[in-house]
Design a protein that fits this description.
The complex is a heterodimer of chains A (about 325) and B (about 325).
Chain A (H helix, E strand, L loop, with lengths): L3 E8 L5 H10 L6 E5 L12 E3 L4 E6 L2 E6 H12 L6 E5 L7 H9 L1 H6 E11 L3 H7 L2 H8 L2 E5 L6 H14 L4 E4 L7 H5 L16 H5 L9 E9 L4 H15 L3 E8 L8 E6 L2 E6 L9 E9 L3 H9 L4
Parallel strand pairs in A: 1-6, 1-7, 2-3, 2-6, 7-8, 8-9
Antiparallel strand pairs in A: 4-5, 10-14, 11-12, 11-14, 12-13
Chain B lengths: L1 E7 L4 E6 L5 E6 L4 E5 L4 E5 L10 E3 L2 E5 L5 E3 L2 E3 L9 E3 L5 E6 L2 E6 L17 E5 L2 E17 L7 E14 L5 E6 L4 E5 L4 E5 L9 E3 L5 E4 L5 E5 L12 E3 L6 E6 L6 E5 L3 E8 L2 E8 L4 E6 L5 E6 L3 E6 L3
Antiparallel strand pairs in B: 1-29, 2-3, 3-4, 4-5, 6-7, 7-8, 8-9, 10-11, 11-12, 13-14, 14-15, 15-16, 16-17, 17-18, 19-20, 20-21, 21-22, 23-24, 24-25, 25-26, 27-28, 28-29
The chains are: A alpha/beta (about 325), B mainly beta (about 325).
């Protein structure tokens, strides 16, 4: 059974989420897309493809892993999967003030959802003109950027070239991995929103930790959220790597928003790809190296990240 | 077993409800029209569906009530839209005078005229499910994040809390009024002895518990959560605490539907591969009759006054089965 792709759409109040949603629902792209809208959503449940749900957060304590998930999503998606006429895609809109973490974590912890859906990625809409102000006012705006696989830098027509450059630098300092698209009135090819592949380990793309060096190092950055990239030649000891990551997420999982890695593990011919959100991690074969150099690449996005400690911790896993 | 009738709805069967007299059956699929049939499953009426998805249905003041993801309640020919969000369940009070509907952090309480003055609003969490106290039409329990909360209509504060810290997907109140049971997102069931204010926790299920049911006399609680149904004794002063439950095997995959007959006391269980078990309890033992049906069983409903059950399938079909010789 093929799994239904899910895209999580987030963004601060007024950034242009509703404009983008209306565009997705209105365009003739040939896809049947179900939209799960938050309680403040503006599209309205009279639209035939929209479900309006109040966010129902609860703590899920499963042994050593404790995380917050969305109960309403578990029930709605469970019911959507029962339908005879399945959707091609599901889009979940979060409120402007929501931390995307619980939405993403829901797909890691619920077995039924893991079997039947696949999170394609987190798309964050950012107001190019007001982002600096939003970041100064609340931590949610930064967290939404930190979680993103794709950032739609919207309202570019309202920002000066200097503002645009400053906003993009600030975004890069928080999240070195996300793809950034510049838009006005959320005009964008829908494929760039829906076909992200950010959480799909089968389609893991190359991770380039050096991206940080080019974009983030020399920028004065007020936030305590940042990205840390690590690259190392050689092979990892699988057990040491597993122990290190397990301890890391146990001790610092609350501060780590996203982790992505591609590893060369001793004794394994294929690449090992890895994803994590807070305390939840997932690893799988990433297919053959196919002529690429066997090396390890790892990126963390989170709060209060200690670059030196992370680098030395990872290096201790090399065999 | 004989089959006095069958009918097919347009989608996966979510819910089956007999009216109190047992003369009408409300057939609710996941999407599309809700069907009203007679006692032999012959179609009487098609009611409009609720857009992206239907919720569970009920009988209220002699008429069918449906709800769904469009945030609407259809009550006979009337339509109520009490708020924006989806409505997953409607349930009638034991005396038939009130209808409850959960919508976000509101539990609407309607009378037949549509007044909702007794509604519980601005609750601390979203209401994932709720259950009336069969012994008192003025008491209702809500389930959600944190556990379950027990309310008396007209009072602003709950009269009891069953906070166990996690999330409950379903809540059921035993007919004798003594027990409240929740099926949880984690593989567990929590049971609350209300008069004694004593909570119990059952673990060890293979997955989250998708179905649970009390027997009509309140002396047994059946729980799913694996292909083996566990039946907990609730009659003694300690209830299931320390007691050995009955394990009913014979299903081929996870059990998705459970219901006790109000007439014979038998338990019917249905699994995802179409295995129907009818379990008879005798002096601490049980015997079961096993029937293999065509597709996964998603819901079950015993007739209120006859040894007859409606079996709903993932395929959308409903078959009536009679146990009468």
């Amino acid at each position: 059974m093929s799994r239904i792709p899910v895209t999580i759409l987030t963004g601060f109040l007024g950034a242009g989420k509703t404009t983008l949603l209306n565009r997705i629902l209105g365009e003739k792209h040939g896809l049947r897309i179900a939209v799960i809208e938050n309680e403040f959503g503006e599209i309205g449940i009279d639209h035939e493809l929209v479900i309006n749900a109040e966010e129902e957060l609860f703590e899920m304590n499963n042994g050593c892993i404790c995380c917050t998930v969305r109960g309403d999503l578990i029930r709605i998606l469970g019911n959507l999967m029962k339908r005879r006429d399945k959707f091609d895609h599901i889009l979940i809109e979060t409120t402007g003030l929501a931390d995307p973490g619980p939405v993403v974590q829901t797909f890691f912890v619920d077995e039924e959802l893991r079997e039947q859906t696949v999170v394609n990625g987190v798309v964050t809409v950012v107001d190019a003109h007001h982002f600096s102000r939003h970041v100064g006012e609340t931590h949610e705006a930064e967290e939404q950027v930190a979680f993103a696989d794709v950032i739609i830098l919207n309202k570019c027509d309202l920002a000066t070239p200097g503002e645009l450059e400053a906003t993009e630098l600030r975004i890069r300092a928080i999240n070195a991995l996300a793809v950034i698209h510049h838009t006005t009135r959320a005009e964008i090819d829908i494929k760039k929103v829906l076909e992200v592949g950010g959480f799909n380990l089968d389609r893991a793309t190359e991770i380039n930790p050096h991206f940080l060096d080019a974009h983030g190092h020399h920028h004065h950055h007020h936030s305590d959220i940042s990205s840390v990239g690590i690259e190392a030649e050689g092979e990892c000891d699988g057990k040491k790597l597993n122990d290190w990551i397990s301890k890391l997420v146990r001790d610092q999982g609350q501060d780590i928003f996203r982790m992505k890695g591609i590893f060369a593990v001793k004794g394994q011919a294929d690449r090992v790809v890895f994803q994590g959100v807070h305390m939840l991690i997932d690893a799988a074969s990433g297919g053959p190296w196919a002529g690429r150099p066997r090396k390890n690449s790892l990126v963390f996005i989170g709060r209060k990240l200690d670059r030196e400690a992370l680098t030395s911790g990872f290096r201790s896993c090399l065999s | 077993m004989k089959s006095p009738g069958s009918i097919t709805a347009g989608d996966h069967l979510l819910d089956l409800k007999w009216n109190p007299e047992g003369t009408r059956l409300l057939v609710t699929p996941a999407t599309g029209p809700v069907l009203v049939t007679d006692e032999a499953a012959a179609l009487l009426e098609e009611l409009p569906g609720h857009g992206m998805g239907n919720g569970s249905s009920a009988w209220f003041a002699g008429e069918p009530v449906t709800c769904g993801y469009d945030g609407k309640i259809h009550f006979g020919s009337r339509e109520w839209k009490p708020g924006r969000g989806m409505i997953e369940h409607v349930r009638t009070s034991p005396d038939g005078s009130l209808l409850a509907a959960g919508q976000g952090k509101t539990l609407h309480i309607f009378d037949a005229a549509g007044s909702d003055e007794q509604s519980l609003r601005d609750l601390p969490t979203v209401v994932s499910d709720f259950a009336w106290n069969p012994k008192s039409p003025a008491e209702i329990a809500t389930a959600g994040a944190g556990g379950a909360v027990l309310w008396r209509l007209g009072e602003k504060e709950p009269f009891a809390r069953f906070d166990w810290g996690g999330a409950s997907l379903q809540v059921r109140w035993s007919n004798d009024g003594r027990w409240l049971a929740t099926a949880d997102q984690t593989p567990s069931v929590h049971v609350y002895d209300i008069p004694k204010d004593t909570p119990l926790k059952m673990e060890g299920f293979e997955s989250k518990v998708r179905a649970l049911a009390f027997s009509t006399d309140g002396k047994r609680l059946a729980t799913a959560g694996s292909p083996v149904v566990t039946v907990w004794p609730c009659a003694s002063s300690k209830g299931p605490d320390g007691a050995r439950p009955i394990q009913v095997d014979g299903s081929e995959s996870e059990v998705q539907a459970l219901d006790f007959s109000p007439v014979t006391g038998q338990l019917a269980t249905g699994d995802g591969k179409g295995t129907l078990l009818v379990v008879t309890f005798e002096k601490g033992q049980f015997r079961r009759k096993r029937v293999r049906l065509d597709s996964g069983i998603s819901t079950l409903a015993w007739h209120p006054s006859k040894p007859l059950m409606a079996v709903g399938h993932e395929s959308g079909s409903v078959i009536l089965l009679s146990l009468e010789a």
